[in-house]
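Let's inspect a concrete specimen:
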Amino acid sequence: MSADVPTILATSGGIVPGSRTRFAFSPLTDLAVELAGVVGRAPRVCFLATASGDNPAVLTWLYEAAILAGFHASHLSSFGMPNLPDPAAHLLEQDVVWVMGGSVAGLLAMWRLHGYDSALRSAWESGVVLTGISAGSLCWHAGGTTDSFGPELRAVRDGLALVPFANSVHHDIEEQRRPLFNSLVARGELPTGYATDDGVGLVYRGTELAEVVSEEDGKAAYRVEPDGAGGVIETLLEPRLLPPAH
């Protein structure tokens, strides 16, 4: 099975500290599997930890979480060489592609170097659900705000643009995010976009936002667009609260 239209779940969540493992998957990741339409078998989930430099510890923690969740897990790496002979074919065989956070600038550079950008687009067009946290949310958009270059946040403007919007993550817990994102949108340096509090996800069906969801009560998303007078209109989007993780 696969999603019936190209689907992205861009999040500031999907993973939490585990009780017996470093990570455990949370309701946003459950939703990604649900969107893929997997029934009667273990979902095939491929991890990309490019943004963390394919850190072996991070990949180990993701695999541990996958075992607990009942996923049939794999990963696609870039350092020091691609670990699979045909990455594009492997991605097409997945139900969900799950992208870890870290440096979105580094992620985009490595993906383009190895052709993963076009492979991911093909997978998305074929119904593989794309999801991830932080850099794994920003990457699908036209651009956003990032700490890839240092502790002072900067704009990134060369996202994959599978959806034509800007994106801001961790909007409620990182104090630089909201003012920088709003100013970039106000000046036209980023297009109209969507921001997510921690624990919130954006479901895109095709290239349009279809739903806002949250794994935490009291959180929200925001549509940010220019107001035509040098500022922005920030519209609060109330999410649907997801059930607890399986």
User: Anything to note?
Assistant: The mean pLDDT is 97. The chain has seven helices and 16 strands. The domain at 7-241 is CATH 3.40.50.880 (Rossmann fold).
